[in-house]
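The data layer described in this paper is built around a simple, fixed record for each protein. We quote a single record here, exactly as it is kept in our systems:
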Amino acid sequence: MIDVLASLLHGGATAVGRLPWALQRALGHGLGALARGLRTRESVVARRNLELAYPGLGAAERDALHREVMRTTGRQAIETLRLWTRPHAENLALIRRSEGEALFDAALAAGRGLIVAAPHHGNWELLNQWLAARTPLSILYRAPESRVGEAFLRRVRADGDADRVTQVRAEGPGIRQLFRTLKDGGVVGILPDQQPKAGDGVFAPFFGIEALTMTLLPRLAERSGATVLFACCERLEGPELGFALRIEAAPPGIADPDPAVAVAALNAGVEHMARHAPAQYQWTYKRFKARPEGRGEANPYADLERKR
């Protein structure tokens, strides 16, 4: 039954993904406008995050950025259905330009293992497909609560790359598997900007605010000696769908044995990418919900949660 329901979801995603791009774009923008108008959870969280991360913006500037964030969020959802359900070779042709590929090639050639830190910026699903076209890799993911949702995600992320992508759950056995992959000179992809569970992270500045940040990626880098690169596929402006691939070296200190130093470097890398195109970062996530103990800081989303 789970596989049947996952197949039905895949069929629906395929139907939307096959629509002409102009219609998909309009649909994405419409979803963003609807979310703003209805003050959905994603919309109000994004507005609060922009207040926290960009306190120097005037009200009109912040509102304009919020509008663009929600339009981008809607486009991201529709684009992803398209990318999941079309041939990967067709998707990769959407990458119109790139920078930093030499860093990636050099890291592969070195054979010491490679960790690709892929923030929730631009379209990370297209980045996964680009990576899989270049090398076998293991992707760490957090399993959805729904078993049907997980079956669907595993299917769409493996279509066309089933023999090159290993999807690893963010659990003990999976973490050990990632370490072995890196020690063997392999490639691992990690989304570095999700709030970890208590005990799996430390606080470090992110847009000037202390944010609970994963120690897993720096720990893997320290223990394996692997290279760390940051990467994203940023959306290009214009009437046609297109992306720019960006690959950057990690900030110094990302493999430091001191977790505080390492996660500060990790957040600096994510922030650098997000500031390059702020509307393309995933601001709809409650990134600052956990607060350091003993400082008396309130959850900045508490009033939003009460209102809902």
Observations:
- Residues 51 and 59 are 9 Å apart (CA to CA).
- Residues 88-307 form a domain with the Glycerol-3-phosphate (1)-acyltransferase fold (CATH 3.40.1130).
